[in-house]
Specification:
Layout: H1 2-8, H2 15-33, H3 38-46, H4 49-62, H5 72-90, H6 95-100, H7 102-130, H8 143-155, H9 158-168, H10 172-197, H11 200-207, H12 212-228, H13 234-265, H14 277-292, H15 305-321, H16 335-357, H17 361-369, H18 374-385, H19 390-418
Length: 421
């Protein structure tokens, strides 16, 4: 028995040491990803930083360097970093600009969101007809729970995915498989859209689209960025963190009694996760961020509020990655087929609407990436067309962050209804 314990005991148990390892991983990944060496750039073209931030801690956990599942860092990440980063992402939400872009960018973004909400249950239903064991499961291994977190990622981003992970409670093994599907398919799709950015005139001819409004948008965004962007001061950074964590504290203070009340008085609502305090924490934190977007606090975006949010998000991601068992990727390869059907429906619905509405390919690409991938991917896709368009991708992606958790939860409920019993 003692020998067995010695074999399975983690090598490192000190939390401060583990924090140091995780932060060193983040530093190494982001430092090397910015190098101009062609071999390193080729490596990151295949293995993006986001994937490594999940999988390097997962490898260390699988090798029992530390025990990620039982680490206190996992609760700190989900309860502190997640609501805080959502507030910082949503604080820059510009509903006026969203309304101005409603006819094209907004149309394609909403179409992409609908494609995810409908495509997920459709993919589960079609797969269940042919291979029900792929989308079955019991308890925490019910596949719809894991796919629900994927819906959060594909409508909002990583923060929404982690929020739904806490709400839906898929097993670590299932969640590890979902992460692999998410990263592989999302980046493969982004690669196609980036290729399309180099062939934009050909795609616009296919859509029979007039791109003059995109050129006008480039000029408008160039002027707005040049007018307001500034270097952050210490005061700015302190205020960002103060709002983010004060909002997190307020959301927690309100959410816990709400969840307890529903659990006591309406136990039937537990199947919809409405008795989960974490569901209400995310809801209230997001609402708090939206309210701040109507105040002078929204100007913090010009000093880098979303960048601070991204820092907290990546700190969260490594705490999630440290719970992964990388061998779980091979436990249910059939889920990749589900993901392919799902993202294909999203792409085809965008193609149909874009063709009918004669929408420029830029709106097709950014509308899709604002859903699948969030701020980072939408920014990359927008920059491929013109650097001045990055803010358009950010605005749409921020809106995705605002609705991603709830739309993803709805998708999960619909997938639960069509999943084999």
């Amino acid at each position: 028995m003692n020998n067995q314990t010695a074999i399975t005991a983690p090598l490192i148990t000190s939390t401060p040491v583990i924090v140091g390892i995780l932060m060193a991983i983040l530093g190494l990944v982001f430092y090397t990803s910015g190098l101009q060496n062609r071999y390193i750039k080729g490596f990151y073209a295949i293995f993006p930083p986001l994937l490594l931030c999940y999988f390097i801690p997962g490898i260390l956990n699988s090798l029992q360097v530390f025990d990620g599942i039982n680490s206190p860092l996992t609760a700190i990440g989900s309860r502190y970093f997640l609501p805080a980063c959502l507030i910082l992402f949503v604080i820059s939400l510009d509903l006026k600009e969203m309304w101005a872009m409603r006819k094209r960018a907004g149309l394609m973004f909403i179409t992409g969101t609908i494609g995810i909400i409908i495509g997920g249950p459709l993919a589960v239903w079609l797969t269940a007809m042919v291979a029900p064991q792929v989308v079955a499961g019991a308890g925490p291994d019910e596949v719809w729970r894991g796919l629900g977190t994927l819906a959060g990622s594909w409508i909002g981003g990583g923060a929404n995915q982690v929020a739904l992970r806490e709400i839906l409670q898929p097993s670590p093994t299932l969640f590890s498989s979902i992460i692999a599907i998410d990263v592989f398919l999302a980046y493969l799709w982004m690669a196609f859209l980036l290729y399309g950015a180099n062939k934009v005139k050909a795609f616009d001819r296919f859509f029979k689209a007039d791109g003059s409004d995109v050129n006008a948008l480039i000029a408008r965004m160039d002027a707005k960025t040049a007018t307001h962007a500034r270097m952050p001061e210490t005061k700015d950074l302190i205020i960002m963190l103060a709002l983010a964590f004060a909002g997190t504290g307020l959301a927690t203070y309100i959410a816990e009694p709400i969840g307890a009340f529903i659990g006591r008085n309406y136990p039937n609502l537990e199947q919809f996760s409405l008795s989960s305090p974490f569901f209400w924490i995310i809801l209230i934190a997001t609402i708090f961020g939206v309210i701040l977007s109507f105040t002078p606090a929204r100007k913090l975006e010009y000093a880098g509020a979303s960048k601070m949010g991204a820092v907290l998000l990546y700190m969260l991601i490594v705490t999630i990655g440290m719970q992964m068992d990388i061998t779980a990727v091979f436990t249910n390869p059939g889920l990749f087929v589900v993901g392919i059907i799902w993202i294909s429906f999203h792409a085809l619905l965008l193609l149909l609407v874009g063709k009918i509405a004669k929408v420029p390919f830029f709106y097709y690409a950014v509308g899709s990436m604002a859903n699948i991938g969030g701020v980072a991917s939408a920014s990359v896709a927008s920059a491929a067309f013109h650097p001045a368009l990055i803010s358009v991708g950010v605005i749409l992606a921020v809106f995705g962050y605002a609705i991603g958790t709830y739309a993803g939860w709805l998708t999960a409920v619909l997938m639960q209804l069509v999943s084999p019993i």
